[in-house]
Amino acid sequence: MRRLIALFLMLSLLAIPTIASAEAPIRLYVNGEEVVAPISPMIENNRTLVPLRALADALGFTVAWEPVGRVITLTKPDLEIVLTVDSPTGLVNGQPVKLDTPPGIRGGYTLIPVRFVIEQMGLKVTWDPETRTIRAATGDTPAAQPTPATPTKPTQPGGASGSMSDALAILSKAMEPYTASAKMTGSYVTSMGSGEDAYKTEMKIETYVKGEDSLAIATSVMALFGEPMESKSGSAVRNGQAWVLNPLTNAWTRSADPEDKPTVEETAEDALGLSDDLSGVKVTITEKSYEGQRMTVVTLLYEKEALARHFSMTLSEIGDGTLEAAYWIKDGAMHHVTTHQYMPHPDGDSTADSIVFYEVLTGPIPFPAEIN
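User: That's the sequence. What structure does it adopt?
Assistant: Structure tokens below.
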């Protein structure tokens, strides 16, 4: 699965040869802490939109979603903000307010205007065009500080120094709940270029493993020059028999017996996306909140040589590319993994963002009817 995902991402980055250059991804900090989201913030109508739940969690809002009218309600003591997808009018404590850019749904995520929401809380917002960084802070916290070129000194909860050996020990322990069965679901979003020349692909994945049986399905939606194209691929092993989902016919067919039948633990660990050689990879170990839950976060930053090894590319091909992987651990078990990748390209720089959630598979694998 790891090799399939890595190959898919690289093909997505290099597939279109004539696209205008894109800029580096936007980063958002609230009171000095970076807001981690499954996809990067984006600019529309000169306004920045960010994933709803990531921003709400960073600002301490409770979120309510009404699917029928696509209405978002953000609440804090003494503050209620009501927004409607694609509507230029919102409500702040019951009073109508005009928005420069309405909320929208992009790539399966609800995005909301960051400056509008933050300023309702009385925070100061600054924008650094050189680093493409947004900083929001209370009046007594510096809002505009230089973006560090590298992560801060690695620390574990409690302030002890961190190291790669510390990180790998934490990750190994976090994977122990998935030694018998595992379910992994998530999405990978890649983009290249901007405006009318934008090329974007979203891949949603479902992976189930139990004993020697497994099922992996990837549904891809490619948006090229505004025209969406959907395809589905997959593979499975059941009772020693291998199956493949044909993306052209959308039918499952038997294939040769798999040469390698990975264990549950191996499959779950492969989905982490770790390189065999982690020398030169920078590590931080911190505590952060995700949707109101406090978690341990192990972050690995690949640059230059480390990224070249990871993707088996030359340094000239990698350029100033980076890959940041964050492993979110709740109560000692892996909860989810997020990645953000930036790759320069002569015909348009590219970004790739992913989020994969882990669960223990309590029931049987949901094999399609054709697989028996």
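The mean pLDDT is 74.
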